[in-house]
């Protein structure tokens, strides 16, 4: 019985060490304003630390899109060359790779009216800050333009799509839980 108890303690410690630091942050783009014209998204991103595994949630009305674009298309507000595009009104994008990622509204004129967002994603583990933390500002003239050379870190090999997770991918928590169950089955047999 002591072996089962010590095995349980080891599994509990492993679960805590794997799960606690891996909470990803969900950022509501633009907070209560959402994805709309007239919001200063460069102010919205200031003070936030984005990490691989975090998610961006774009909420918007009809007549808008969320397009992931190259750095040069972001800077010039060029529409029609999107890497990915969604117009569902509620787009969730999981940040899967480090680097700077660029998003605009693909409706002509909307990017120039401020519907553009550049997010620099660090390669570290996801942050554990509260969902949607940070400040927002409305009435701005749009995000600031970044130097055209900034797109050198953009990764196009794994384009972002709305997160439609399949059951085939196990989180570290689930994998650890399966390992613990297997361990106890061996100990009890």
From TrEMBL:
Q: Which PANTHER family match?
A: BLUE COPPER PROTEIN, OS06G0218600 PROTEIN
GO CC annotation? plasma membrane
According to the record, the segments passing through the membrane are: 170-188
Arranged from A to Z, the UniProt key words for this protein are: Copper, Glycoprotein, Membrane, Metal-binding, Signal, Transmembrane, Transmembrane helix
One Gene Ontology term of the molecular function aspect: electron transfer activity
Q: Which residues form the Phytocyanin domain?
A: 25-123
Q: Name the chain's protein.
A: Phytocyanin domain-containing protein
What is the organism of origin for this protein? Citrus unshiu (Satsuma mandarin)
The residue ranges flagged as biased composition, category Low complexity, are 122-136, 144-157
Source species taxonomy: Eukaryota, Viridiplantae, Streptophyta, Embryophyta, Tracheophyta
SUPFAM superfamilies with a match to the protein in the record: Cupredoxins
């Amino acid at each position: 019985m002591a072996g089962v108890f010590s095995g349980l303690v080891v599994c509990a410690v492993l679960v805590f060490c794997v799960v606690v630091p891996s909470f990803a942050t969900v950022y509501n783009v633009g907070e209560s304003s959402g994805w709309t014209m007239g919001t200063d998204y460069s102010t919205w991103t200031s003070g936030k630390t984005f990490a691989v595994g975090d998610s961006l949630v774009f909420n918007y009305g009809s007549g808008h899109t969320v397009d992931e674009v190259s750095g040069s298309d972001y800077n010039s507000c060029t529409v029609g060359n999107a890497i990915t595009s969604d117009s569902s009104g509620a787009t969730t994008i999981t940040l899967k790779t480090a680097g700077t990622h660029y998003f605009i509204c693909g409706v002509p004129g909307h990017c120039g009216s401020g519907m553009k967002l550049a997010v620099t994603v660090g390669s570290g583990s996801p942050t554990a800050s509260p969902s949607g933390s940070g400040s927002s500002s409305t009435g701005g003239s749009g995000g600031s333009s970044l130097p055209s050379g900034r797109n050198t870190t953009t990764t196009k090999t794994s384009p972002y799509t709305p997160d439609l997770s399949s059951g085939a991918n196990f989180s570290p928590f689930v994998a650890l839980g399966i390992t613990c169950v297997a361990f106890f089955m061996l100990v009890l047999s």
